[in-house]
Amino acid sequence: MSTGLEPPTGGADAPVSKPSQMFKSCWSCRLISGGGLILSGAYVFHAARKVMRQGGPTSMGTVAQITFAASLAAWGIVVITDPVGKAQRKT
């Protein structure tokens, strides 16, 4: 009698989980994660703009924050639209 947890005995015929395929077919998953990235980009942009609005100097850190915010929002748009594999090669 074994009291410990035993690893599953999956042979060559065991189904392989493909989380990337599941993520691509799950519209609500892409919408939630992409929307979260867009909102986090908006939050970072708002924090950078707040410093500038209070009269602070525009430093390289503020520019880096705005650039990072734009990249987060762009990443969110890419996750939502899922352009991978949709382009057709011209022959």
TrEMBL record:
> Which keywords annotate this record?
Membrane, Transmembrane, Transmembrane helix
Residues of the Distal membrane-arm assembly complex protein 1-like domain:
25-71
Where does the sequence pass through the membrane?
Answer: 27-48, 60-80
| Name of the protein in question | Distal membrane arm assembly complex 1
Mind giving the lineage of the organism this protein is from?
Eukaryota, Metazoa, Chordata, Craniata, Vertebrata
